[in-house]
Amino acid sequence: MTDSSYVFDLLIVGAGPAGFACAYQLRNQDLKIAIIDQATFPRDKICGDALSADVVNQLYRMEESLGEKFEKFAEKIDSHGVRFVAPNHTSLAINYQNPNQGNAAGYISKRLDFDHFLFQEIENQSNVEIFQGEKVLDILSSSDGIELNTATAKFSGSIIVGADGAHSIVNRKLGNIKVEKDHYCAGIRQYYEGVSGFHEDQHIELHFYKELLPGYFWIFPLPNGQANVGLGMLSSEVSKRKIDLKKALTDLIQSKPHLRNRFKNSIPLEKPQGFGLPIGSKKRPISGDRFLLLGDAASLIDPFTGEGIGNALRSGRIAAEYIIKAFENQNFTSDALKQYDKMIYHKMWNELRVSRQLQKLLKYPRLFNFVVKQANNNSSVRTLLTSMLDNVDLKKELVKLGFYLKLLFGDIR
């Protein structure tokens, strides 16, 4: 039996980046917004903790002062590039181009800190009330509105937003996105301190070992001499090959000589933590009568990199536009809200599709070895790959046979 009843215009489940962006974009609207989260902030979120150029871009697009405030945020480090380690253990370091107004193209910040930074930006927003420590137990949708129940309260609204991550109850109750192992990744994260050998420009590192393909092992530097270490693989491969990810993480660190040397004076700060990644490798319905799904709840994670924060922020920003239209027209039907789906995939599908194709190419380790070798021997190839990190139209070249023929015959200048 619930103790309290609340009536709002909009219910947002989840106070992470997607829920934040949606609420923040509605800060000047005459809408009463409830944000319901089962956690109490600050709270951890198992993740790689890397913040791409698009994350910074989305903050600036929401409001320039928000981007500037993030630039001054202390609990982060600049990251100026990425180090790829090929299956044959040769490495390639590439610096990012910087398309943003900020100091660096990318950053690394624990989600404990970054999400709390965002949380504090909406905590005192005049049209928002945040309910922490409230686990959603049930959601009911009718022609009259949405009803949401927790253990202690009942919430009513005209529309609900699912920004509650990979195991979204909004999707489970109202949506139709099912877990498909070929479109889902399993990951393991473990924090360390004392890992050595990082690039002077604080590159994130992606190690593509043959035994993990089409997944990868990562090492990301963090503030205060710490590191985020982990690995991710397609769930279908984990299941088919019966891989124990926690054991695989430990075995890699102990068995690879170059890793063993870098970890010899390190100290693990936690036990390995598992998490799931619903990747954006197929189009799905992400709205319906009186609901929208955002971020991880909408399976908008990049299939190649596993990055999802930028797309979470973008989806929240876009969702706000269609929520405003829904209230203006008093139309919360599936037909009206499916325009949100169309806009999301108009903005994101091109890159998600290319990333899925790149993920499939990881099944061919010799191809990866070849590209790294050519890039290390040819500055023009390195420059092209640098541009590809930020430009999806150039990135498309990586999935074309012609690109590899040009590499083979030295025809990239």
UniProtKB/TrEMBL annotation:
Highest taxon listed in the record's lineage: Bacteria
Record domain FAD-binding: where: 9-315
A GO term, aspect molecular function: oxidoreductase activity, acting on the CH-CH group of donors, NAD or NADP as acceptor
PANTHER family membership: CONDITIONED MEDIUM FACTOR RECEPTOR 1, GERANYLGERANYL DIPHOSPHATE REDUCTASE
Protein name (Swiss-Prot/TrEMBL): Geranylgeranyl reductase family
Native organism: Marivirga sericea
